[in-house]
Amino acid sequence: MRFHWLTRLGMAVTVALGVFLANPAPAHATDTKFQVTHAHSGGAGTIAVSIKGNIDWLNRSVRLYNMQIFVKGGECGIGWLAGYQTNSQGDEVLIDRNRTDTYCPYGDAWYPVPDITLDGSFISGGITRLKVQAWDETHQGGTWGTFNR
User: Fold this and answer.
1) Please, which residues have CB within 8 angstroms of residue 140's CB and are 6 or more apart in sequence?
2) Is the Cβ–Cβ distance between 99 and 56 less than 8 Å?
3) Which of 5, 35, 47, 80 could potentially form a cystine with 52 if both were Cys, beta carbons 3.0 to 4.6 Å apart?
4) Residue 69: closest CA among 149, 146, 142, 148
5) pLDDT tens digits for the chain (149 residues)?
6) From residue 89, how far is each of 45, 71, 85, 92, 131 by CA, in Å?
7) How far apart, in whole angstroms, are the C-alpha atoms of residue 126 and residue 146?
């Protein structure tokens, strides 16, 4: 009886290991740091808004985390986020978008921004390009940064 019980245990472990190896974790690219800054006077003036953080390229989606946004005192700033899928010609199709809150400090300030995930799970290939914009709501101008998987 003892041998029979050990045989069954060995078979169960073998099956469990086979299932684990047949279903690997989702594809996960290396994390990337980003920072996008918008300055007055076409980039030559005072910094109005800057957003920075980390990009976590998931299987088909992208997560932005450890984000912070800087806004110049007396201004209002927003971070815009857009996930695209690109083809070999460089054409873009918008997959998902989101934004931070609007921040309007009295003095220069950095604010923590909650994590944001752009969902590309519903489309084969998912999100392959991320665009982040530091937007100066007060003067209606912004600067985009582009990041590719």
Assistant:
1) none
2) no
3) 35
4) 142
5) 454 444 444 444 444 444 333 444 445 556 789 999 999 877 678 999 999 999 999 999 999 999 999 999 999 999 999 999 998 888 999 999 999 999 999 999 999 999 999 999 999 999 999 999 999 999 999 999 999 99
6) 35, 36, 12, 9, 18
7) 16
